Amino acid sequence: MIKEIVVASGKGGTGKTFISSNLAFFIKYHLKKEVVCADADVEAPDLILALGGIRKVISERHFYGTKLPIIDYNVCIKCGLCIEACKFNALRMSDRGPTVDYYRCEGLGTCSLVCPVDAIKFKEKAIGKIIVAESNVGIVTVTGDLEIGESNSGRLVYELKKDARNFAERKGAGYIIVDAAPGIGCPVISSLSGSDLLLIVIEPTPQSLKGAKRLMEVSERLNINWYVIINKYDLNLEFSKKMLSMFGPKVLGTIPYDFEVVVSYSRMIPLLSLMPSSRTPTALKDAFGKLFRGFVWEEL
Question: 21, 62, 219, 238: which is deepest, by most CB within 10 A?
């Protein structure tokens, strides 16, 4: 049975992609288990870069997450009922008839329903891509890439997770690592849906703690167990001690602030691969080891 771990943070900049990429590397090369990654930060995907960049594209497909109204002016009688019905003010009357402001349109289709002469049809629009690629460290990653300014990020995450699960089944992988978007919005909730465990990355700041607590509330409502990693803990030792006391055994480990992380990012090599014996990789391995010892899965 495939186990799905979501790495999230509640806010940006805490280091969740750093944790995600090294966790995937740990599973593949330390646990010797097959793993598939899913980059669910579809507005700014970068997990494949942290895993060494693309070695080989396995598949690529367009994501059609919305429909756009097309008006047939040969049929339109300029009655204006569609303009009255649109709650997003996406329609304006012109000499030809109603014109569509596609930046305002949400594609709900009310205009088409109220049109008495059936002059409005809807056409699907590609608003993103789903790319399955093998990274340069040999880990298959499914990436969602939403076009700039488009919506439906939650549905794109749902689709890419489905592709990741299908690929993991074909590959015989035991794990899927999902690198979630910042915050607790639609793409994060979609990332959490159907997962087995949430790994929350927190930095020692009030803003990060607040976001993490909201994320914990969401995960508990979805009946998903969670653990915590405190990243960059030595930036504020007193605050880190407060969080250690607050979360107790839920804290898997504390990761230091380390320039080696910057080096690994710039070279696009997971730190566990680049400098496996230095202090930060040692802390990562300790934290990941606690995760797999504490989370009872049959194959471990």
Answer: 21
Relative to beta strand 54-71, strand 140-146 is unpaired
For residue 166, CA distances in Å to 110, 140, 154, 159 come to 35, 12, 19, 11
Out of 3.30.70.20, 3.40.50.10240, 3.60.110.10, 3.30.470.20, the CATH code matching 73-118 is 3.30.70.20
pLDDT tens for each residue of 165-176 = 999 999 899 999
Is the predicted pLDDT of residue 299 greater than 50, yes or no?
no
Check if the beta carbon of residue 155 is closer than 8 Å to that of residue 65: yes
| pLDDT, tens digit (0-9, with 9 covering 90-100), for 141-161 | 999 998 887 777 888 999 999
Q: How far is it, in rounded angstroms, from Cα 121 to Cα 295? A: 51
- For 3-64+127-294, give the CATH class: alpha beta
β partners of residue 60: 131
3-state secondary structure of 179: strand
Contact yes or no for 177/167 (Cβ under 8 A): no
DSSP 210-243: HHHHHHHHHHHHTT-EEEEEEETGGGSHHHHHHH
Length of the chain: 300
